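Quick one: structure tokens for this chain, please?
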Amino acid sequence: MRYAVRFQGETLEEVTAWAKKVDDAKFDVLWSQELHTSPFVYPAAVAGSTKRIHLGTGIALAFVRSPMSMALTTFDLDRLTNGRFILGLGTGVKGLVQRWHGSTYGTPAPHLKECIQLIRLIMDNAPHGKPIQFKSEYYDVDIRGFSIEHRIVRPRVPIYAAAIGPGMCRVIGEVADGVLGQIMASIKWAKDVMEPNIRIGLDRAGRKREEVTISLTITMALGKDVKKARRDLAKTVAFYCTVATYQKLFEHYGYAKEAAAVREQFIKRGGHGPWCWDLISDEMVDAFHVSGSADNARKRLKEYEGIADTVIFTPPNYFLTAEETAEYQKEILATFAR
């Protein structure tokens, strides 16, 4: 399996130092994120100071930018990284896309499928000056007389998409080059839901399993203080208990009542707090995340063999300080450096 982590740091010096450490530790991919930061800036910032590691957006919100803009940005970043860029897309949630960005949010899976198809069409045709015509439910594009004048490093830059539900997994099997597993999607969910539906999509498109990279996220809090680590991970679990999108996941694991109790307290108390994460048992934490020693982390990682092509190690960050998250990130790097 290949190893991946996420960007860390705020200043250029901090971000660059972290990227160099991860590169030297022989991790395979470094992923940026989108919420409080732009996903394209950090990969560009470290393109010249890293050598071998791939740099990707994990994720960039697909519906808040035009496919043309994302295709051109992808060409630029693949050129700056000399062929090490991965475009990772996700739908985000409806309220964020519509109210924060003022953008259209269609039915998620079909909308993202069309977005990826259009980006791919632009990237296939623009380098050769071919017309780009695409008319669908969500896009109506007609580009003529346009060609890319810059050097094209790779004829096909990988496009990954974030998924947790069956429909999105099938779309990825049809049109994407990889899947990015959500931080609550553990190996059980990957085996029971994600992988079978990716194969359905592959069969629909006449593609092979090796044409899609399955990247699964493992949230880890490693260290000697296991009690604190589990409590910090419980904060992540509690947060997702209050997000409607993930209720089927909790039901799948048999934690529907626990998730409902957290939502009740969240509504009653007007937000997150100890009244939410104190309801999360150690058993529930361990069902989704990994805590404890480096040896335990390596043992748990073996569960992903045969399903995941890449594992994305990520520390907890919900309701934690930046310093606490950074410490967990350092433990991950020390444990899995090659």
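The chain has one domain: 2-222+288-336.
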